[in-house]
Amino acid sequence: MLYHIFQEQRGLLNLPRVVYVKKSWTLRELHIRFFETVKDLMIRWLKDYKDDEASSRCRQDPKYKNPDTGEALTYDDFVRMDAEKQFASFFPNLTEDNWKETLSKRNFELEDMPY
Q1: Residues 29, 40, 67, 109: is their CA dihedral positive or negative?
Q2: Which pTM value belongs to this model?
Q3: Phi and psi at residue 13, to the nearest 5°
Q4: What is the pLDDT of residues 34-79, one digit of tens each?
Q5: Average pLDDT for residues 3-7, to the nearest whole number?
Q6: What are the b/e assignments for 49-88, b being 16+ CB within 10 Å?
Q7: Integer Cα distance of 100 and 16 in angstroms
């Protein structure tokens, strides 16, 4: 899998990243592994909103929910969660049973699929 990072504010920054995957992984396992590689960006985005109520990392407000309470996800909640809860907060609708339907929508809301 190859993905790129593009940053518009400071000009073109195109950094290819290679992620090795195993064919034996389920879709959920693949997304969890990928999420682990970009989780730090999500943490910084939530921290920006905690500190400044805005972020230069994304033009949209984070609209994610705490999977335990259903309340808006905060930086403090997120850093206290285990990895499974963190993943569930960013991918509340993606399961092994519904992945084909979920990914075929093409028009995702940010809170349905963060990348």
Answers
A1: negative
A2: 0.67
A3: -130, 100
A4: 888 888 888 888 888 888 888 776 777 788 889 899 998 999 999 9
A5: 48
A6: beeeeebebeeeebebbbbeeeeebbbebbeebeeeebbb
A7: 26
Q: Where are the domains of the chain?
A: 26-104
**Type of residue numbered 108:** F
CB 71 within 8 A of CB 54: no
17, β-bridge pairs? 3
Angle ∠(66,17,102) on CA atoms, nearest 5: 45
Q: Phi and psi for 88 in degrees, rounded to 5?
A: -60, -30
Locate 2 and state its tokens: 């190859």
Helix residue ranges, H only, the chain: 27-52, 75-80, 83-90, 99-104
Dihedral angle over CA of 44, 45, 46, 50, nearest 10: 90
pLDDT score recorded for residue 114: 59
Alpha-carbon gap, residue 29 to 70, rounded angstroms: 24
Structural contact between residues 32 and 87, judged by C-beta atoms closer than 8 angstroms: yes
